[in-house]
Amino acid sequence: MASKTYRICTLPGDGIGPEIIAEGKKVLKAVGERHDAAFECEDHLIGGSAIDATRAAGEEVSALPPATLAAARAADAVLLAAVGGPKWNDTTPGAVRPEQGLLAIRKSLGLYLNLRPVRMYQALRDASPLRPERLEGVDLLIVRELTGGLYFGEHTRRHNVPGAGVDGAAGDAAVDSMEYSEHEIERVVRWAFDAAARRRGRVASVDKANVLETSRLWREVAHRVAAEYPKVEESDVLVDNCAMQLVSNPAQFDVLVTENTFGDILSDEASMLTGSLGMLASASLGSGTALYEPSHGSAPDIAGKGIANPLAQILSVELMLRYSFHMDDAADEVARAVQRVLDDGWRTVDIADAQTPKDHVLGTVAMGDKVVEYLG
Description:
- The chain has about 375 residues and is an alpha/beta fold.
- It has two domains: about 1-110 and about 280-375, Isopropylmalate Dehydrogenase (3-Layer(aba) Sandwich), CATH 3.40.718; about 130-275, Isopropylmalate Dehydrogenase (3-Layer(aba) Sandwich).
- Helix content is about 40%, strand content about 20%.
- A ten-stranded mixed beta sheet has the order 2-1-3-12-11-4-5-10-8-9, with helices on both faces. A two-stranded antiparallel sheet has the order 6-7.
- A hairpin with a 5-residue loop joins strand 11 (about 280-285) and strand 12 (about 290-295).
- Helix 1 (about 15-35) packs across helix 9.
- It is globular and about 65 Å long.
- The mean pLDDT is about 95.
């Protein structure tokens, strides 16, 4: 019997989710065997699959059923794959959408902080759309506020508003509100400074203070926190300039901290430095059970084909081992295994190029097997 048992609420979700989460479980099993630990994974519904299941059962339609939330709260960690797809793109006002399940579980678990490490693998420099010389030394951590801002503000639609339509006719008008408190900002910014103090000592705080009042408050709080960290260098970067700098000189960044909407956009942009969203993992942390997930979507166009890249899911397992279970040695082993797999030329189709030998292009299951092999 293992000396330690961890309970994990696994959420396969939609599209390629069930395929890639199976590879994450495979790696967890191998890690457990090496470190005298047991990882008990229990699948639950979220996203489109939850919408379908609750509708079929005649229950209240939900992207986050109560049983899923209860299991997440009771677990030691949550491992999510992906949610969404065109099947559930109902734009009818009030319609339940898969992404609501993701937003709701973050909010319900008190997960106010998202981490996305962006590592440059030397073996994948040619997979990035950027020139290799611009990728030298890229190793940044994006810290994103997760439960405030536009995504959690009020969303209203008004109909037949005079002058809102074409040529002055009546039409629809929509409002999305954005709100932040000092408390919401400070807890995220402080985490970023703590992380920078353990890294290379630089924080770039991203805002739009030349336009938005929420950003002006963000900047004030960032400066106040910065005064407590004299060994950490702080800079303010407007979000549009940050987007430009991420593709022109990404190595300048160490820790990048920003609000919810900006962080969502910038982290997806930063993923292309690595050549594929299939390489980017994330951790959502806060006051409740932490949640780990790849940064890519459900990729319904390739679901069931066995070609999805599972490495972001496997790297999410690495983050879970590190932040929830404090198994740093095991996390390092997973990170090194992924690095060695790539260094030896093994690829999934999304990160392969014309120089990749055909016998080195692996499917989803084979790539998971390869990472397990290299763990040894």
